Amino acid sequence: MDGVVEPRQLTTTRSMTDRIFRGGISASGVAVLVIMALVGVFLTIRALQALSQAGLSFITTQAWEPDGGNFGIAAVLTGTFLIAITAIFFAVPLSTGVALYISEYSPRRIRQTLISLVDLMAAVPSVVFGLWGFFFLQGQIIGLARWLSTYLGWIPFFSVDGSDPDDPLSTATVFTSSTFIAGIVVALMVAPITTSVMREVFSQAPVGEREGAYALGATKWGMIRSVVLPFGKGGMIGGTMLGLGRALGETIAVFMIISPVFLIQPNILQNGTNSISALIALRYGEATPFGTSALMAAGLALFLITLVVNFIASSIVARSRSGASTD
Amino acid sequence: MTASIDDLDKLASGDPTRRTTLPQRTPTPVDLKARRIGGFRRSDVLSLAGAAVGGVGVAALLFTLLPFSGWMGFLVVSYVAFVGLYAVLVSLDEDFSAVKDRIAAVVIHSLAFALLLALIFVVTFTVIKGWEALTNLNFFTQDMQNAGPLDPLTSGGILHAVAGTLIMITIALAIVIPLGVACAVYMNEIPGPFARFVRTISEAMTALPSIVAGLFIYASLILILGFDKSGLAAALAISVMMLPIIIRASDVVLRLVPGNLKEASYALGAGQWRTVWFVTLPTARSGLMTAIILGTARGIGETSPVLLTAGFTAALNLNPASGPMVSLPLATFEFVKSPEPTMIARGFGTAAVLMFVVLILFIIARIIGGRGAGNLSRNQQRRSVKRSREDSQRFTRRESARVASEGSNPKPSSGTPSLDFGDTS
Q: ipTM score here?
């Protein structure tokens, strides 16, 4: 014996059923990959036709006249972001409050019901929110929009052309169909999603640290600020980004509310704005083959943006301390 | 009691007259009532109520003196005044950190209340506006073929949209469930670089905006391949949108199946297929059902892919392969485009029906699902106990049969004991 022992070769002989089974599920994996790749590749190839003609002006042009060769996403992209940012501005404080309420303040008896309610709200179809925004909110919000533009009009985003606060007969229509209204409606849509991510993370804050904070004399809010919020920071950012991804891609509620313009409209209270998804819903029917290609390019741009946002969100959630306890 | 150095010296010298003196305890009254550590004190309630009344009062004063108007502004002003007054009232008898605590509690409670109220309001608003349409029975039994925009609500309905939604979602589920669950099983059963790649791609595709999924089917199937707009095209668009969602959710659920269950199955001699079919999938069944149903709720509610691919019709069309077909959200969208009040009422009614369908799906998902892998409902536990009792009886019967046959034929068995799974045969 020279002491060298050859490792035993382990082989698995699989039965016929197992081989068929493995083949079947591998095939489904490949099929899914092919479908997904087909979507991506097809979008890219069709978009390239328009992109190669437009070149860099695709990003800087505001107008959308693809058949005249003059088209770009400067206006719709700005509109998309303004709507999404307005939505996040309203959704984040709301959902932080709700998430903290559910995980910290709510009576234990109704907690599960509240969680189910928030999940159910996340499943409410967007067309319902669109209806509410168009038929109810639009009429009620004008007063608030007018007040904001009158007293905060010196902030660039809040000024409105064509409204005169001293003229009681000035028309209110300049305040309708604005980024502001669309943003509030989208905020209500994304708030349940953001809430449910945040609540999940807040409820995982370690009990030992909570009790440590109380033992050091913290009030409930002191405990939340020094334990729960730092612990849940990753989840808060991740949930917000996830909501942002949904807000960027939202179509039908935005499409129902806004009146589309192809200009960069930085005044969020002013009538008229646009978004990429609303542009596609508006123009797909009358588009020539080249026009469809241009819409594909816009869709691809939207997809890439939401992809990046979602990717950042999931990596932040995964890397946050949430889920790991301190021992 | 005081003890000086002298006293100690006397003690040390053994003076018998100087002994340790016991202190005279005066009995202090002991409060035997348990201290309340939770709940509200009277001052809490009073300061809240006082601040609320004061807030509304301040707002009312401002609105009569200054040129303010509108109920929304009134709410905002009274809320701000309420919080300010509450802070002042609490600071009268508490310190600064307690004041911060109270303010935070009040703000968090009101934020939660505001969001839940707003969401509930959105839902009830739809039902109330659509109630007029919902109370007519023909709304559920007719299509819009013979009803014009000016016709009253007693004619015309949304049967075509209900049928369209059911057909589309059935086709989509027939594609998505086998493909999605099989793909999730693949990622868990045959791990490796390729499976990781598939997982990354399908997670990336959850970011695909639904309108882009619709645009893909529109541009490929309808413009290039030349098919008509149809229910099938819409179902395919919904499938493209739902597939990544279902894969991701099923993947998470399957990953939670405890490894020792699978290993136990392998150790008993079952193959991979039997392990997946009899151990992994049944263990994860509740979670898988939840994933599928919640994905279905998303798919049913999407308007934009259907808008691009299904076309629009007012007539009932049961053939998904040809002719335009309409779904509930699309019908809502098309109804409310009309300026006629009856059409708008129909739109709200359709939206209410859609929400009702989503609610039903959600309740089903809650009833059968919502449990982690391996956590059984009471009925499942009962059935599992029954199965295991039957198994044990079977084992005893076999054992006694073996003993009996050995008794009649006393030759020691030399072979390995054979295992027999009742449910694999």
A: 0.83
